[in-house]
Amino acid sequence: MKRTFDEVRHVAIYLRISQEKKGENVETLENHRQILYEFCKENGYTYEEYGEVISGGKSEIEQRKELQRLLEDIEKFDAILCFELTRLSRNGLISQTVKQYCIDYDKPILTPYQSYDLANSETDRLLYDVGSMISSHEHGTIGKRSKANKKQMSKAGLHVSGNVPFGYRRNNETKKLEIYEDEAKVVRYIFKLHSEGLGSFKIRDILNAEGYKSATGKAFELPTIKRIIKNPTYKGTIIFNDRKKIKKNGKFVYEPVETIQADNAHPAIIPPDEWDRANRERINRANQAAAIREKPASTTGTTMLKDLVYCGVCGRKMRIFFDDRSSTGYVIQRCYHLYNGEKCPNRGIKLELVEKEVAKAFPNFRSLLEKSVQRLQREKEDGVETDLKRKIKQKEKKLKDLNKQQEKLIDLALKGIFNEEEIRNKKQELIDEMKHTKVAIADLKEKINNIDIEDHINSLMNIIGLIEKLPNMDTEEVNQSLKTFINKIVYTRVLPAELLEKSTRNKQRKEYPFEIEIEFIE
């Protein structure tokens, strides 16, 4: 007999939109979310949400991080709630994995329109299997049909895949590319600058200084310049690569099966002979640079602050490198990321100076830890609970800020500040960070219910012990130790305009101070 699910109180909501479908975006995800929220409200369910932007045909459960996490947490819930079965997966192997978990733990799958009691109903298991089989077959058939169609269209010189290159627009009736002159003149300018011997770095700086904008309406980034120079579309050629996904050494890779090339497929922005000459020159320059460089551009060793220094202006991670052209040694390189359409103004400095400032903060941080230990020993469980509640409040504030950022994404997309891919990536970043923050809050709440005063004190004492041992560690050990109690070091050194006009050898310019802010892990 089919059960009524009256015992269902707490459900796991699983949300997924496909990164492969142009019609599925943040609005689709939000629509599904609201429908499931209303369903929970109508039935009096409490819930936790697991959401991701990923293809439903992914063949490895490891690629489905949120679904995998849901299955690991399945004992916490009375049921799994999704918009429809295809939202769980279009891959047969993953569908059967989910089914087995539901049978083993006696957890039904609910949708707003259908329920599946997989552990107790043969009929529901059959319906689930048939639905999963149809979804898997449909996914494979659509993929093969789509690829065959793309190959045929490519042979005919039609634009069928990927974003339309900067400088072109796609005619939806003819499916061919047409020159968009407002952007095409920028492409010609890029090739002209390249023919004059300028590299991608310099070309990018010139374009941004003269106010040119990329397809997204923002300043040009270095990868964009390189892609434009290498793209054969600009000489009127369409190239479609038919690839096959195979597994090698435990990882999925795409191997080319067939490359379809159609010349004179659309009007060329750059004459073919000029494009060929530019790319021969590009390859020659790369080869010459590789011959001159005595060692690869890989890291030259681990430093005390490796992967810990972040720009105080634009927020990006800063690069540390070894300057073997002088006696300076390791330096924090100037931040070259774009900031408000221009190069970030944050200047670099000798790494040793920053390391000394960071080291000066250790005694004070150690003193604070020791006081925390003393306070905890005095207050016992009450002290730990106060500390944990303070951390929960901080995490909840962070979660609130992340929710606000998520709500603003659609507005940013409508204003053209982010393109579709950037919105999708940013959305997933926010989802991931929100999930991690929710997990952190849950862990802290769990700790309140299971306070172990000695364990908490031991954790603080371990950090104190690490700080004491730092002087006797080698550089790599110091770096690894710092990462256990330092989240990031925010570095800022913005020189006044009058100093920038002076020589780099000017003493006042060389000794201009920097500021750091150390964000310790709580």
Itemize the secondary structure elements and their pairings.
Blueprint: E1 10-17, H1 26-43, E2 46-53, H2 65-72, E3 79-82, H3 85-88, H4 92-105, E4 109-110, E5 115-116, H5 122-155, E6 168-170, E7 177-179, H6 181-195, H7 200-209, H8 222-230, E8 238-248, E9 251-262, H9 272-292, E10 309-311, E11 320-323, E12 329-332, E13 338-339, E14 342-343, E15 349-350, H10 351-379, H11 381-414, H12 420-449, H13 453-469, H14 475-482, E16 486-492, H15 497-500, H16 507-510, E17 515-520
Parallel strand pairs: 1-2, 1-3, 3-4, 10-16
Antiparallel strand pairs: 4-5, 6-7, 8-9, 11-12, 12-15, 13-14, 16-17
Helix pairs in contact: 4-5, 10-11, 10-13, 11-12
Short description:
The chain is an alpha/beta fold and 522 residues long.
Structure description:
- The longest helix has 34 residues, at 122-155.
- The strands form six sheets. A five-stranded mixed beta sheet has the order 2-1-3-4-5, sandwiched between helices. A three-stranded mixed beta sheet has the order 10-16-17, covered by helices on one side.
- α4 (92-105) packs antiparallel against α5, α10 (351-379) runs antiparallel to α13 (453-469) and α11 (381-414) packs antiparallel against α12.
- With 522 residues, it is an alpha/beta fold.
- 50% of the residues lie in helices and 16% in strands.
- β4 and β5 form a beta hairpin.
